[in-house]
Design a protein that fits this description.
single chain, 74% helix, mainly alpha, 0% strand
């Protein structure tokens, strides 16, 4: 992979990781457009690794919250009298909500890195999950905030996050939709999406790092794409939190449907191949 391709993919990752449009789907499309073999194990690993840049942006942006939650969790683990506070419980919630996607990703690794690396799946998921996003906004009461989050909420959100292993679904689209179904407000649902992304994407990135570096990609393109994704993702986080405070995530549906329709037309006419 040349540095120009790495730069482009870093920008795509940073822009799309936290928007409900599917970063993996967009990376797959961009990799195909750049002439890269999207079903190659090295490219699949590279896609996972550069997400670490976006997660680093989350760590920096939410550093105060994460420090407060992690220290409260550690105090509670060591000393029983510190257990029961919201921050201590929230630390456990993030861990519990991350378990489903770890289990499903490990069990379905061959499927995720194989058959699902197809533009047919990307196109279909872009269209199909749009319906879920619309329904979640229609039924949302948004009566509950972050202090109302419980174990049941994060387990449901964590389970629905597993759908994002299908390129085109969108991890943020899945988790925010789940939060809205549960009556949480958009900002709370979005913040939960950010927090749950940390274990899932860091784990996936570290797991795939040897494959990315050993799969012909090389450390320099991987590093460039990761750094670029960090910078762009940091700006995307700030924008998204302001946006969801006053806008429905259903506005992204039109873009998802248009992109899915274009992909289906190109695939159906044989203009492009699925892998």
């Amino acid at each position: 992979m040349d540095l120009f391709s790495a730069l482009v993919l870093g920008v795509v990752e940073g822009v799309t990781e936290f928007l409900p449009v599917s970063s993996t789907g967009h990376l797959t499309i961009a990799e195909k457009a750049l002439g890269l073999p999207i079903d190659d194990e090295g490219i699949t690993a590279f896609t996972a690794v550069i997400q670490i840049g976006a997660i680093a942006a989350v760590l920096v942006y939410f550093r105060s919250d994460l420090w407060r939650i992690s220290t409260a969790w550690l105090r509670g683990v060591v000393r029983p009298e510190h257990r029961g506070g919201f921050d201590h419980r929230f630390g456990w919630y993030v861990i519990a909500g991350s378990v489903p996607i770890v289990v499903v990703a490990l069990l379905g690794q061959s499927l995720i890195t194989g058959p699902l690396r197809s533009l047919w799946w990307v196109a279909g998921a872009l269209v199909a999950w749009s319906a879920v996003m619309v329904v979640s906004e229609r039924v949302a009461t948004q009566r509950r905030g972050e202090r109302d989050v419980g174990l049941r909420d994060v387990l449901v959100i964590g389970l629905l996050q597993c759908a994002a292993l299908i390129p085109g679904v969108s991890r943020s689209g899945a988790t925010i939709s789940a939060g809205l179904f549960l009556g949480l407000d958009r900002v709370t649902s979005t913040r939960l999406s950010f927090f749950l992304s940390i274990p899932a994407l860091v784990g996936a990135g570290l797991y795939e790092l040897p494959s990315a570096l050993g799969g012909g990609i090389g450390w320099l393109p991987t590093a460039v794409a990761t750094v670029v994704s960090f910078v762009v993702a940091y700006l995307s986080i700030a924008w998204l939190l302001k946006f969801v405070a006053g806008h429905s995530i259903a506005v992204f549906v039109w873009y998802r449907l248009a992109l899915g329709a274009v992909l289906l037309a190109l695939l159906g006419t044989g203009t492009i191949s699925a892998t």
